[in-house]
Amino acid sequence: MDRRTLIVGAAALGFSAATVATRARPAAARTAGFFDDVGQISAGNHMLPAIIANTGTSLTIAAQVRYTTTVPGGHHEKGAADIVTFHSTDNGQTWGPMRYVYQTAGPSGQCGYAPVLYRNDGDLVIMYAVGPQNWSTDQLTVHQRRSTDDGDTWGPVTTPTITSAHTNGLPSNGGKGFTFLPGTGRIVVPGRACLLYSDDGGASWTATPEFAGTVETKAQPYFIDGAISRTALVPWRTGNTTDGRIGKIRIADFYSNNGTVQHSFGASNNLGFDRYDNQTLIMTVTRSGQLYVRRSVDEGQTWIDEKLITGSAPSVRYSDVAVAKDGTIVVVYMTNETSASNGAPLHVVRFDMDWLTS
């Protein structure tokens, strides 16, 4: 399956072909497809993985590396932590060495938190927060670093400003953003119970009002009749396996919550979310300790073709999913073999749409 340019309907609304890409849908009858268990890519104490497709055959994973907290009585998920990335140049088949984006001063250092990836002007950008151990949200400072080689190396640290009417105006756990409205270059990333948006290439951000029922969100552009709209779809974790939530959040000259819909994709932990094409969404969710993938062809109203990814693996917690330019679906997840820092090894699996729908 080859990558396609943006649909004519989106172009008619003023969206550039580079903004949100679509992928060809096979016309022939589907076959069994392929499933590739890449396996464990790092044994570190990882948490909050995010994955994004870059140019060509490149993908990047970002995650925390956690240390056990040294604060007496401190929260075990708020100890010292690094922010790291992994880079693949072959659609996720192999992964290069771990790169440090933020390296703390060992177990007594500060906490790097909530990595979010997005692309801007051809570059890859990582956004994350840094604060003291056992932090509260008002103690976190947002940092960014830019990469001109799809995450193989990273440039200097910058500290964007964020305008927010609430303390949750910060990047969320292990997500990725997107760009639309090319006339303004608006970038949107998932925030804690909200969205963050920037009109100046990420130098400054504004937080929407809080609308989600949890701080753990993901976001993708919403399509109406096959064309991109000025609205984001935002699913969020609900903490159970039967009761899912997804909101439509308008992103234009004003921001409002256009309603929340209940679904049956409930997730025990934060979920993975990406667009396959202008008609299809992909989601990964943990249920009863195992990881499932499913798709929606009606913009998240219903979910079909659910398949188990990790039937023989250890139990699973957080995950994220990205669709490579050739249509390969790549999932990163952390196992539930947690340490005292609540981190765990990262694993990767790859498959195609034929496997998912066969």
TrEMBL record:
It is an enzyme of class 3 (hydrolase). CDD domains: Sialidase_non-viral. It comes from the Bacteria. GO terms for molecular function: exo-alpha-sialidase activity. Coiled coil: none annotated. It catalyses: Hydrolysis of alpha-(2->3)-, alpha-(2->6)-, alpha-(2->8)- glycosidic linkages of terminal sialic acid residues in oligosaccharides, glycoproteins, glycolipids, colominic acid and synthetic substrates. Pfam families: BNR_2. This is exo-alpha-sialidase. It comes from Phytohabitans kaempferiae.
